[in-house]
Specification:
mainly alpha, homodimer, 3 strands, DNA-binding, 120 residues, 5 helices
Chain lengths: 120, 120
DNA sequence: GTAATCTGTTACAAAAAGGATACCGATTAC
DNA sequence: GTAATCGGTATCCTTTTTGTAACAGATTAC
């Protein structure tokens, strides 16, 4: 039971640092939709209606989520000069930094579903 | 512009699979607190009040979150025969599978904060 | 002319999530 | 005897999030 005080302190600040970082991430991509939208866009650019259908999200919410993602530099919005006008959303170079996060979430979800199904 | 139909279809089902997986994960560890709580517990077991203080979470919410995490096998709850009784919460072997997710979130948060600070 | 497409916005309602505070019974420290 | 500790619940309330439906203005297809 001999634990040096400095170790404890060190551990506590490291813990605080980790909490802060996780919170920061959640502030940007937390909530019900952002990570799902990024998951879709990672697999190719989409138009507004396409995203709405594919994610099953109402236009009002979708609009808000996309704006927030764009403000954080995680997606790009391009108005195409078609008739009628279409708007393309796509990932950005910066959102590539989220690959690790998205992949981890994806893998865990797959793994968890398997586990649930195989443990009655 | 020659894209084989089968590729598109393949891409779509892969995308659906990914959406499902990410949603599954979010159903289990989504929300404001669960990932933060796991971040803390990954760094050592805590008691109820400790968690409450460290995360800055009110007892009502904390109690609910802990129950949900326990139901999903992600944390353990141990009543200790002390006076007064204390309860220890800890990670489980299964929650180790979330290491990848938590690490990715942690790293991204650190990276993002740096980016924000260095881009005025 | 009618219906359907596109990207959003607006107004309103509902639900979910989260927070504040007091309190329980048992115990310890002063 | 007073205050503080422990884990947790109960009550009430506020905030956030989400959904629904209608609509805009412009164009195309029939």
């Amino acid at each position: 039971m001999e634990i040096k005080e400095e170790y404890i302190t060190e551990n506590k600040t490291e813990c605080k640092r980790a909490i802060l970082a996780v919170r920061d991430t959640l502030d940007v991509v937390g909530g019900k939709w952002k990570l799902v939208l990024l998951t879709i866009l990672m697999r190719g650019k989409r138009r507004f209606r396409e995203l709405s259908r594919e994610a099953g999200i109402s236009p009002r919410i979708l609009s808000k989520e996309l704006q927030e993602l764009e403000m954080n530099g995680l997606i790009s919005r391009t108005v195409c000069d078609t008739k009628p006008i279409t708007v393309e959303y796509d990932v950005t170079p910066y959102s590539e930094t989220l690959h690790e996060v998205l992949d981890a979430l994806n893998r865990w979800g797959v793994q968890h579903r398997h586990k649930i199904i195989n443990t009655p």
